[in-house]
Amino acid sequence: AASVHMRQLVLLLAAACYAGVFAAFIASDNAALGIGHLFVLPICMVALVSDALTGLFAGVLATALYIVAVLLAPHVPSSHAVTGASLIRLVVYVAVGALIGFYANRNRQLVERLKALAGLDHVTGVGNARSFDEELARRWTAGRPFSLVLADLDSLTEINNTHGHAAGNAALKRVGEVLTQQAGSNDCVARIGGDEFAVVIALGVELLPTFMAAANRSLVSDGLSLTFGATPSPEAAV
Q: Region 144-160: what's the mean pLDDT?
C-alpha cells in the first residue's frame, strides 16, 4: 500500500513538473535559457515508477508539450516547432524514458524476487522461520481467530543416517508438500527447524484433528509420519 501511494505521489509531482516547465517556457522571454530541456525531469520521474512503455509515452508527451509551447511562446518563432532539432529531442526523450523505465521496472522485479526468496526454505520450498514470524504477527494484529499447528517429522535422524541427507531432504520436501495441500490457500506453512514445521491455519480447534489425520494418511505411502501439537489463538479459544 505504501509503495502504491508513493507511486501516485511521484506521478502527481511529474504532472505538476510537466505543467510547470510548459508554463515557464511560454512565460520566459529568453530562448537561450533552454527551459525546454527541463522536460527530462518529469520523464525521469514517470519512468522511475513505471516501465519502459510508460517511460516511452512520457517522452512522447514531453516532446508534444515542447512543440505546443514553442507554438504558443511569443519569443520563439513557430517555425522552430518542426525542425530536425525537434526530431532529435523526440528521440532523446523517448530513449531516456524507455531506458530508465526498463531498468527501474527490472530492478523492482529483482527486489520482489529477492523478498520472496528470503521468506522461503531452500529445502522444502515452503516458508521459513522469517515468513512464519511475519505471518503470525499479521494474524495477531488482525485479531481474527486462527490456530497454530506444530508438526515434527518422525525419525528424520534415522532417515539421514540410513539413507543419506538427500533422502532426508526429500522427506522434508514431501512433508512440506502434504501440509501445503491440506492447508488452505490463505494459510501459512513454514519449516521453522531441522524437522519442525509450523502451520498458521484458519481452522477451529474441533477441525484440527481432521487436518492432522489427513496429513498423516497422505504420508503413509512414503513411510513417513508426523507428531503434532496445536493451540488456538485467544480469539479462537473464546
A: 92
* Per-residue pLDDT tens digits for 70-98: 888 877 666 655 676 788 889 999 999 99
Q: How far apart are CA 217 and CA 224, in angstroms?
A: 9
- Which residues make Cβ contacts (< 8 Å) with residue 231, sequence separation at least 6? 147, 148
Which among 227, 219, 223 has a CA at the least distance from the CA of 197?
A: 227
Q: Which residues contact 200 (CB under 8 A, 6 or more apart)?
A: 132, 135, 136, 139, 146, 147, 148, 149, 187, 188, 190
The pLDDT score that the predictor gives to residue 158 is 92
How many CB atoms lie under 10 A from the CB of residue 2? Answer: 6
Q: What angle do CA 99, 105, 108 make, to 5 degrees?
A: 140
Amino acid 77: pLDDT: 66
| Phi, psi angle pair for 120, to nearest 5° | -110, 145
Instruction: Check: pTM over 0.70? Answer yes or no.
Output: no
Percent of the chain whose predicted confidence (pLDDT) is above 90:
64
The three cell numbers locating residue 61: 508527451
Residue type, 2: A
Concatenated DSSP letters of 16-70: HHHHHHHHHHHH-S-GGG-GGGGGHHHHHHHHHTS-HHHHHHHHHHHHHHHHHHH
Contact 190, 129 (CB under 8 A): yes
Q: Angle, nearest 10°, between helix axes 2-27 and 40-48?
A: 170
Q: Which residue has the cell 543416517?
A: 161
Q: Quick one: pLDDT band at residue 23, thresholds 50, 70, 90?
A: very high
State which amino acid sits at residue 178: V
**18 pLDDT above the threshold of 80:** yes
